[in-house]
Specification:
The structure is a homodimer of 447-residue chains.
Chain A: E1 2-6, H1 10-22, E2 27-31, H2 44-48, H3 63-68, E3 72-74, E4 77-83, E5 88-93, E6 98-103, E7 106-109, E8 113-115, E9 128-129, H4 134-144, E10 151-155, H5 159-170, E11 174-178, H6 190-202, E12 206-208, E13 213-219, E14 221-227, E15 231-233, E16 236-239, E17 243-245, E18 263-264, E19 276-278, E20 283-287, E21 292-295, H7 300-314, E22 328-332, E23 335-341, H8 344-349, E24 354-362, E25 373-381, E26 387-394, H9 401-410, H10 415-419, H11 435-441
Parallel strand pairs in A: 1-2, 1-7, 2-3, 7-19, 9-16, 10-11, 10-16, 11-12, 18-20
Antiparallel strand pairs in A: 4-5, 5-6, 8-17, 13-14, 14-15, 20-21, 22-23, 23-26, 24-25, 25-26
Amino acid sequence: MNVLIIGAVAAGMSTASKLRRLDDSIKITVLEKGRDVSYGACGLPYFLSDLIPKEKQLIARTEEQFIEQGINLLINHEALNVNHIDKTVEAMNHETGEKVLFHYDKLVIATGTSPIRLPVKGKELKGIHTLNSLEDGRNLKIALNQPNIKRIAVVGGGYIGLEVAENLVEMGKEVIVIERENRVLTKFSKLVSTITHEELLKHGVVLNLNETVTAYEGDAFVSKVITNDASYQVDLVIEAIGVRPNTKFLDNLPLERLKNGAIVTNKRMETSIKDIYAAGDCVAYYHRILKNSQSFVPLGTHANKAGRVIAENIAGLNSTFEGVIGSSVLKVFDLEIARTGLDLEEATLHNIHANRVHITAKDRAGYYPDATKIDIEIIYNEVNCQLLGAFMIGKKGVAHRINTLATAISAGMTAEDYSALDYAYAPPFSPVYDPVQVATNQIKCKK
Amino acid sequence: MNVLIIGAVAAGMSTASKLRRLDDSIKITVLEKGRDVSYGACGLPYFLSDLIPKEKQLIARTEEQFIEQGINLLINHEALNVNHIDKTVEAMNHETGEKVLFHYDKLVIATGTSPIRLPVKGKELKGIHTLNSLEDGRNLKIALNQPNIKRIAVVGGGYIGLEVAENLVEMGKEVIVIERENRVLTKFSKLVSTITHEELLKHGVVLNLNETVTAYEGDAFVSKVITNDASYQVDLVIEAIGVRPNTKFLDNLPLERLKNGAIVTNKRMETSIKDIYAAGDCVAYYHRILKNSQSFVPLGTHANKAGRVIAENIAGLNSTFEGVIGSSVLKVFDLEIARTGLDLEEATLHNIHANRVHITAKDRAGYYPDATKIDIEIIYNEVNCQLLGAFMIGKKGVAHRINTLATAISAGMTAEDYSALDYAYAPPFSPVYDPVQVATNQIKCKK
């Protein structure tokens, strides 16, 4: 059996490694268009500020380690198109400039995403960066360490934008965040955005909301960002406005995809074409609350898990990826910001009669030193009091508490079920009533 | 309706407060043998070292606040006996020395525990303390702050013993822990004990295992602890060898109790006698994994929840306390130490074919600064791979992670179910595979 994998970061290399461990007779070939493999892209913002000093720290396993494992890993090989009838992939070897044809019995697409770029005047100027790949990080880090790079515009107030903004402040840069919506972190609640705004301002980030970048100006190198409302002198720009799946090279295939190009997969991580699997940031996952395969949630955790599932299915086991519910967490300066499950809008959109409670509580016993405030919002089904989702924000005790809710939501628990859970308690870690239980206690369930 | 509550700490005052909020026509009388009400006993070890400087910080609500709420709170009133036929309680008013008779329609027993004392020679000497009540804490704090109190023996290496030992070290005391078993924290795994031993030694605690105290010596004030193996010069002794329910005054009643005196309760927190409820550290709770009412788990979380349940049932709602599973957490110097569910011995004792996995992992992404080791042990049912229990120990990321397992165990999840959960991930908080999922991934489930 001949397994061909396109893409050598999280999903691709999880598949390759797991498959090799399951079966050492299968021929495994991996095509990677760049030169970096198996790196932790989530660490890139921290690599910029030298919190993580060396890029090799981000490498989970090296090219050499994969080759030693008997995986035919070909870097600088870019897949150009797939023929699902002949079961072949044509690729460009960027080292030789030659096209090469690869045959497959099973194909795995794990091509990840590319950053969406603003299609504005001046977009070709030097000094406009993105941060999606290790290569991006390497280039950006060099650029940031040039003399006179002091004032930086971050375009986009999502996860990456804010993680980057924090690390730029740590480097002593002046940071302007430009966000076209009226709040940052639009995938979180308004309350979360408001609290995050305060935190950003407290750390000296200049926040410009409701502003759309209309042009970049400069003499070869960007020196000004023009928006609908203002203009900013800058030394460098980082765009972080979102990503799109790298699936354009599949346009000729009758492959079910979302509008943004994400490949639709079932729980076995199969695509709509026989013998073609897909995983990682280029796919749409099964959503375990909404019970459909429409969720574009490009996160490393899913890539790793889904990659393993593909390997197990190719090796003849019957394995499923049970899907996503929309859990995520990020650090913004001293805040832990997390969500899981559905928000009120998503629930309503799917015809669920949802409601929300909001409480504030201390992360630990009020009498214990350094107790800090946590805000918790819980989204629940009004009909049966089933838990649907949550937002949580605070200085401490958020990042793991959110996963107790992720567990409860996946188990189909009601608010009352959650309130009854026997949670470990000691004053340094929690109040006697866990803050999440304080929130679920507010939800009155019909018996 | 006339509701009489005996005991005014967590369970008693939770019942009283909740009941008053539910129904302002009910007459509520609370008898408290001491003078302290509604305090957070779990904070007492930290009160000793002035980490929590003032005792009023430990008071959730004051006597005055309860009285304002229309609760007839009588301190210095000790219940002497209960007549369940006449529905009366005889009490001693320690202020006047008079006996008083109280009638009840519903009685709530929330008398807590008393420390078990070593019945050894010299036990009546001064300078031998326990730490169970606020009164104990107040007396002990004064004693510890006397000049020349430098060397202290803590007898018992359980929760309280170790929390006290830590706080004594923080106060600059020399601390000797004497434990009769071959390890501390016997309610945790051997691995947890071993790691805890290292932590105690690192912080200068002298640890004497396999030693039983046989006598105290001294001239009015204790100055020497004699064990089966050695003797120790000390300035003060703190005994922390366990507690027993304060239920001796109920000996004349046909009340179902465990051998240690704990009152057996059902999920409605009813005892075996009509119109008598009980909650808090004096009861045995329903165990939701073992499905029986035999669990003596004297912890504040249960007291608060069970108290509310009693109030709801008295008020005519139909409320249940879903029970305990054995979750707990404590801080010992720089360690977070937690457990939930069954250990291997408990499972085996109840005829469950159980097994255990153990892994070590980092609490956050390995490349992120200050990543520290967590040890995780999971106990599971070998037949169906259902999760039964867990131990976890590490410097960070333990105290709340244990509650994801408490949730999963209560939901009846298998290892495979847990491994499939969508957990929030970011490098400052977790590796891309959560450590607990690394552990559950090791458990191979039959399909």
